[in-house]
Write a structure and sequence with these properties.
single chain; alpha+beta; Rossmann fold; two-stranded parallel ribbon; two-stranded antiparallel ribbon; 42% helix
């Protein structure tokens, strides 16, 4: 849909959508409706949809919020891979402190103020 909204020809939009579904590991689910997808699959589709226009900035609000721990970790690993391979600036909002700890830089909102809580040179 984002490509069609920009005026991309339908055949080109479908080809790009197929490429992104392949990139997020869902090429075999392209003919399924959202209600037929698991929560993790829906999050991966959301990532593909968000990145199909090749933005430089990815904003993700609770991208793993409704997922079990294993699925959340897999979605986060996908975000990390996409972040690196597409040279994105990514801003994630999460209540999951384990996932936040894996980010290069973390900020915590306390009493209306942002406070830096962590920075990792290894990520």
């Amino acid at each position: 849909m984002p490509l069609l909204a920009r005026g991309t020809r339908k055949s080109d939009a479908m080809a790009q959508a197929a490429n992104w579904l392949r990139e997020v590991g869902l090429e075999d689910r392209s003919d399924h409706r959202p209600g037929e997808l698991s929560g993790g699959e829906q999050q991966r589709v959301a990532l593909a949809r968000a990145l199909v226009n090749q933005p430089r900035l990815l904003l993700a609000d609770e991208p793993t919020g409704d997922l079990d721990g294993i699925t959340a970790a897999r979605v986060f690993e996908l975000i990390e891979r996409l972040h690196d391979s597409h040279h994105l600036t990514s801003v994630l909002v999460t209540h999951n402190l384990d996932l936040a700890a894996r980010c290069k830089r973390t900020l915590r909102l306390e009493s209306g103020q942002l406070k830096q809580t962590g920075s990792s040179a290894t990520n």
